[in-house]
């Protein structure tokens, strides 16, 4: 299933007029840069903080408000709930809100999260400069329902978190959160047709854990895509004597400032290292550089950084040009998707952002105009490169235009296709490297070597520092099952373990929503579902589908207890459809290692398990085609493939 690794020429392309540059040379350069990042240990080069108790300090919650944390035992009437949603981020909120809209009472829903409040990634991440890279008029859900007008074209993190709180109030869910609480085990009770959920709550470090067992007919696993921070597995992380933290747990007691006022005054006079150069580091680096005595940016592979074009939202313009007529937000999202997941561009670009000028992202998001067979794949990859190379050349030239030191600029140029790493958009990052107090430590793909008690070591050079900030990302989103993503066990019919079942056969779903072995357990992707740059759209598509299925199943059941699941035939059919439509996704094989391809691990999988892996993957025709398939299924009206067992 792997894409060809040999270079292909692109007819008519000469590198946008750059003398001596052609598609063959660029492809060869891509391969050389990829080779620098390939490692035998692959994803094992990282430490998953949540699985190693000695790194527990990196996971402490700096944001919790003890006054809003209740005893979990008091939040379940008779140890029961009508639905338990695992995850209080935007995905969990969308699941809960769509159920409320479909008729479920808000007081019957419990939203469980180890955080101290709503927001998910926007609860945990509060680093200076935090901004969504998707246009806010597309990203923030439910704008039409709430009438809310985002303050900026790209919303800052605090606004997104506050908007989440606003939505909980609008739909009566503000008291549904069960915080600082984690699900450890789910067990299906076939006779009662409900889930037994084992929870553990620890409200303060000095308090003992409280364990409780509750029941609910429905559970939704909405634990996030990038939720468990990771560190590089290098010697000396715990030996460093200075201040050290992960960007997902920003420590303002070390830096000074706050999420509302990022004046990092405590960094004055200090030497700081930021480890990482992905989209998080791109936002942090300019903020820290303003305050630190000296900043070292440790880079393995540079991000391709295009301009952002941030601006405040003019409310009158928004009302006249954006929020025009019923369904305006869905139309805008469809317009966004059409720029890289369909074969025909829309007549008008409603969004006009960097994503709509990155057509090569079809390789990662799926494409309705993609190949229908593996035989068509080489020509498809050739087409993708023809679309993508001009953009990547422009992004590389942008570095040369902004960064004054030619040697530094060269190291900041991204030599891989757009689709191999999440694109970055920022108006200040590149210019930061013109500052005298900023040093790029380019490790030529190798990463940081080690830490001593007072320094970082890269290659054969040591850099004394006072503060280290790890912007090293999260557990890869495609690793494991919903059980592993939440660090819990899920036991379904006849005690079958989801972890074991999926490792043998992959998920057995229809539309990525319900697995045949786990009734009344609603999933949230990405397995056997689809992908948009705006992950909230993916989550909302499944949340809407879950609300529809629950409402229809209740109607069919006649009011008693029931199990809703899918037939084995439906699961087999959907898995085959995923497989048959997988060819467009194969272009990501051969990418520079990143979380997109599990640090290159997908390329090294044994051939005998590839069919299972592909059947577990994404709908290759893109998110809009996935929604079309789901809507046609709903319109048919019979809930084909669904079983309601009373």
Automatic annotation (TrEMBL):
<comment type="similarity">
    <text>Belongs to the FAD-binding monooxygenase family.</text>
</comment>
<dbReference type="InterPro" id="IPR050775">
    <property type="entry name" value="FAD-binding_Monooxygenases"/>
</dbReference>
<dbReference type="InterPro" id="IPR036188">
    <property type="entry name" value="FAD/NAD-bd_sf"/>
</dbReference>
<keyword id="KW-0521">NADP</keyword>
<protein>
    <submittedName>
        <fullName>Uncharacterized protein</fullName>
    </submittedName>
</protein>
<keyword id="KW-0274">FAD</keyword>
<dbReference type="GO" id="GO:0016491">
    <property type="term" value="F:oxidoreductase activity"/>
</dbReference>
<keyword id="KW-0285">Flavoprotein</keyword>
<keyword id="KW-0560">Oxidoreductase</keyword>
């Amino acid at each position: 299933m792997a894409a060809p690794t040999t270079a292909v020429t692109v007819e008519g392309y000469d590198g946008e007029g750059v003398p001596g540059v052609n598609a063959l040379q660029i492809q060869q350069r891509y391969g050389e840069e990829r080779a620098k990042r390939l490692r035998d240990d692959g994803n094992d080069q990282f430490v998953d903080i949540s699985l190693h108790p000695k790194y527990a300090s990196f996971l402490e919650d700096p944001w919790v408000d003890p006054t809003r944390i209740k005893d979990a035992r008091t939040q379940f009437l008779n140890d029961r709930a009508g639905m338990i949603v695992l995850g209080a981020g935007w995905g969990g909120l969308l699941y809960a809100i769509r159920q409320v809209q479909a008729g479920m009472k808000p007081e019957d829903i419990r939203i469980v999260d180890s955080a101290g409040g709503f927001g998910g990634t926007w609860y945990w991440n509060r680093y200076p400069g935090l901004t969504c890279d998707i246009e806010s008029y597309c990203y923030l859900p439910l704008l039409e329902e709430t009438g809310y007008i985002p303050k900026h074209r790209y919303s800052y993190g605090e606004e997104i978190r506050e908007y989440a709180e606003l939505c909980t109030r609008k739909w009566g869910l503000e008291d549904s959160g069960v915080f600082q609480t984690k699900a450890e085990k789910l067990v299906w009770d076939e006779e009662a047709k409900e889930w037994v959920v084992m929870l553990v709550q620890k409200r303060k470090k000095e308090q003992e854990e409280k364990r409780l067992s509750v029941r609910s007919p429905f559970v939704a696993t909405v634990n996030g895509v990038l939720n468990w921070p990771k560190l590089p597995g290098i010697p000396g992380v715990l030996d460093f004597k200075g201040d050290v933290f992960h960007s997902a747990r920003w420590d303002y007691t070390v830096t000074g400032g706050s999420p509302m006022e990022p004046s990092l005054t405590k960094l004055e006079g200090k030497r700081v290292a930021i480890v990482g150069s992905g989209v998080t580091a791109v936002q942090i680096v300019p903020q820290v550089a303003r305050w630190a005595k000296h900043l070292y940016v440790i880079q393995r592979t540079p991000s391709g950084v295009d301009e952002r074009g941030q601006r405040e939202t003019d409310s009158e313009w928004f009302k006249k040009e954006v929020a025009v007529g019923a369904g305006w937000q869905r139309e805008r999202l469809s317009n966004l998707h059409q720029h890289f997941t369909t074969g025909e561009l829309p007549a008008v670009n409603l969004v006009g952002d960097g994503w709509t000028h990155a057509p090569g992202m079809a390789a990662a998001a799926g494409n309705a105009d993609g190949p229908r067979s593996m035989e068509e794949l080489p020509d498809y990859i050739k087409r993708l490169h023809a679309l993508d190379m001009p953009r990547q050349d422009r992004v590389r030239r942008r570095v040369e235009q902004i960064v004054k030191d030619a040697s530094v600029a060269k190291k900041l140029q991204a030599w891989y296709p757009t689709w191999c790493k999440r694109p970055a958009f920022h108006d200040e990052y590149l210019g930061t490297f013109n500052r005298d107090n900023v040093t790029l430590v380019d490790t030529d793909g190798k990463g940081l070597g080690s830490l001593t008690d007072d320094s970082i070591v890269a290659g054969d050079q040591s850099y004394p520092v006072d503060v280290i900030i790890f912007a090293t990302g999260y557990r890869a989103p495609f690793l494991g099952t919903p059980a592993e993503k939440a660090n819990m066990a899920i036991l379904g019919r006849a005690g079958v373990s989801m972890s074991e079942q999926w490792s043998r056969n992959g998920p057995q779903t229809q539309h990525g929503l319900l697995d045949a072995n786990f009734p009344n357990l609603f999933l949230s992707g990405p397995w056997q579902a689809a992908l948009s740059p705006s992950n909230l759209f993916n989550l909302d598509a499944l949340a809407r589908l879950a609300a529809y299925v629950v409402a229809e199943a209740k109607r069919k059941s006649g009011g008693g207890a029931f199990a809703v699941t899918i037939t084995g035939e439906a699961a087999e059919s959907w898995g085959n459809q995923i497989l048959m439509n997988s060819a467009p996704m194969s272009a990501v094989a051969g990418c520079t290692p990143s979380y997109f391809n599990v640090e290159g691990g997908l390329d090294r999988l044994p051939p005998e398990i590839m069919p299972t892996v592909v059947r577990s993957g994404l709908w290759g025709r893109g998110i809009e085609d996935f929604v079309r398939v789901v809507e046609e299924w709903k319109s048919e009206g019979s809930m084909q493939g669904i079983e309601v067992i009373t």
